[in-house]
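Q: I'm writing up a methods section and want to include an example of the input and output format. Could you take the sequence below and give the corresponding predicted structure tokens, formatted cleanly so I can copy it straight into the document?
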Amino acid sequence: MTTTVITADMVKKLRDQTGAGMMECKSALTEANGDFEEAMTVLRKRGLASAAKKAGRATSEGLIAHRVAADYSAGTLAEVNCESDFVARTPDFQQLMSDVLDLIDQAGNGATDAWLQDPEGPVKKRAAATIAKLGENMGVSRIARFTGDYVGQYIHTVGGKLGVQVEFSGVTPEVRNRDEFKSLVREITMHIAAASPSPQYLAREAVPADVLDKERGIYRAQMEASGKPANIIDKIIEGKLGAFYQQVVLLEQESVIRETKPKIKDVVAEANKALSASVSVARFARLKVGEASQ
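A: Here is the clean output for your methods example:
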């Protein structure tokens, strides 16, 4: 196996994202043969990585293009990137965002990642025209297009660089006009925008088995030197998994909107009781400019 040379830049990047010391980061990268994700796992097993640290820092500029149907049956978010915030505020860039949304609407279910990244596709060609005019590289890194009973959105008004989209099911025409439902949409979308860490999965059942196995392995490695009996370690691991769910699962997170901090699943249940309905969160997307390139 070829040995990867560990550079100072690699060490710095790992340190920025984990908070661990320079020597620990270099050691972890060496052990992982330069594999960044594996090095982070090594640090976590050693208890050196801070869970509060984010996976990376946004470096790209741009804006989140957004559109929702008048009847809320469909919605689209698109991360449109460029090199400078100055260009992102120009009329030409704003027109590019609008045209990208039009192209996504026209493509419908055909608006896939492959379609988006196709060098000969409509999005790449449309972006090329603005690149030629403004002399700055730009593109569309990702999109989220939902259709369903009701699609709600929240676009952070400061900068327009963060957008959230949530599809709700079980929403009848009567329910959608109720203030209680509008409040639910606002709270869920704003929570997803503001929560730290950001939710990655909708429900516990949506967390992949390999992700859970990896977490269990990390927790077990942390407990190996504790001297505790195996059955006690197993209980501790399951307890840690419960805390893990609260970090990454939307319905298990505590609302950051309310001071009382109810879990999101309880917020939904409370709204359903008031509405005499069976509304549920079907899926969600959170796009922040620059995150896709981290």
